[in-house]
């Protein structure tokens, strides 16, 4: 199954949800030049949902890590601004299509 195409950067994150479906994350450069942190839900029956952008990063090689816990999906990745590195985090609704 193909999850993403385009200008993919960095590494992939993956998390299994309670129902056996997967959440997959990656970084992709958009047409406007942004490095988008994307997420896609894949059902246990291998049906891929739409690609959702859940954040952006200035970095090219990023490993957006995913963790599913107690009904919540979390994504965390690194970013850099003014020479300082920091972590971005977001809680993503599990009711992904």
Number of strands: 7
Q: Taking all residues together, what is the mean pLDDT?
A: 88
Q: Mind describing the biggest β-sheet?
A: 4 strands, antiparallel
The helix content, as a percent range, equals under 10%
Report the radius of gyration as a whole number of Å: 13 Å
| Alpha-beta classification | mainly beta
Features:
mainly beta; 0% helix; 97 residues; three-stranded antiparallel sheet
What does this structure look like?
- This protein has strands at residues 8-16, 22-29, 35-42, 52-57, 65-69, 72-81, 84-92.
- With 97 residues, the chain is mainly β.
- The chain is globular, with a radius of gyration of 13 Å.
- A hairpin with a 5-residue loop joins strand 2 (22-29) and strand 3 (35-42).
- Strands 1-2-3-4 form a four-stranded antiparallel β-sheet, with no helix packed on it.
Kindly summarize this structure in a few lines.
This protein is mainly β and 97 residues long. Helices cover 0% and strands 57% of the residues.
SSE topology sketch:
Elements: E1 8-16, E2 22-29, E3 35-42, E4 52-57, E5 65-69, E6 72-81, E7 84-92
Antiparallel strand pairs: 1-2, 2-3, 3-4, 5-6, 6-7
């Amino acid at each position: 199954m193909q999850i993403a195409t385009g200008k993919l950067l960095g590494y992939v994150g993956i998390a299994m949800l309670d129902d056996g479906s997967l959440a997959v994350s990656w970084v992709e450069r958009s047409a406007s030049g942004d490095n988008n942190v994307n997420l896609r839900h894949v059902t246990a029956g291998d049906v891929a949902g739409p690609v959702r952008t859940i954040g952006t990063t200035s970095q090219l090689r990023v490993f957006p890590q995913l963790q599913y816990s107690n009904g919540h999906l979390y994504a965390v990745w690194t970013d850099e601004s003014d020479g300082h590195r920091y972590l971005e985090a977001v809680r993503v609704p599990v009711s992904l299509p």
